[in-house]
C-alpha cells in the first residue's frame, strides 16, 4: 500500500516503538497523531516531533469514545490505525505469582483495547479510498516466553484476532490488516529483560513496518521473529524449549 500523505493514529506513541514509528511516518510525509495515557509524556513527544496529539487511556471506555469523536471531527481523513500501546509483567507462573491480576491488566491493554478501538474506528476507516489497521504484537505470538507468560497469552490472542479481522475485511472493504511482530527491542519497558544489551533499536521496527506496508506483507517479522516462527512450525516442542533455554 502507499504509505505517504496518510493520516495516521499511533497509540502508545510517547516513547519506544510507537515514538519511532511516528517519527519515521511523519518524515515520509504522513500526518501523524500521537495518543497515550500519560499527558506529560505524550505532549513532550508530540512537541519534539512537531505532531498533533490526543491524550487517551485506551483501556477506558469513555476516553476511547472521546478519542473517536475527536478523530471524526478533526481528522476525518484518518486512514491508518496503529495499535501499539502495550504493557508487560516480567514474572514466572507459580502459586503466588498473582497471574490473574497481571493477566487482566495485560489483556485490558494488549487485547481488549485494540479490539474496541478498531471496531469503533471501522466506520471512519471504511470511508477512505485506502486504509490500514496495524497491530503490533510480538515474537511470543507463536510460543510463550516463560518470564512473560500472560503477556505472551495476550499477544497470541491479538495475533489470532488480527488474522480473523484481515479475512473478515478483505471481501468488501478497502482496509488492509497488518501485523508487526518484533523480537526483543531496546526500550524502557525491556530494561529488566536485557533489552539494553541484546535488543534492537526501535527504529528497526519502524523501518520494517514502513517497507512491509509498501510491499503488502501482512505479517511483518522483525529481528529473529521470522526464524523463530519457522522453527516453531518445523518442531513446536523443540522450538519452545530452545526459546526458553535456561528458564525452566
From TrEMBL:
Keywords: Oxidoreductase. The keyword S-adenosyl-L-methionine does not apply. It holds the Pfam family adh_short. SMART domains: PKS_KR. One of its GO terms (cellular component) is membrane. InterPro entries: KR_dom, NAD(P)-bd_dom_sf, SDR_fam. The keyword RNA-binding does not apply. Residues 6-173 form the Ketoreductase domain. One of its GO terms (molecular function) is oxidoreductase activity. Coiled coil: none annotated. Belongs to the short-chain dehydrogenases/reductases (SDR) family. PANTHER family: DEHYDROGENASE/REDUCTASE SDR FAMILY MEMBER 7B, DEHYDROGENASE_REDUCTASE SDR FAMILY MEMBER 7B. This is Short-chain dehydrogenase/reductase SDR.
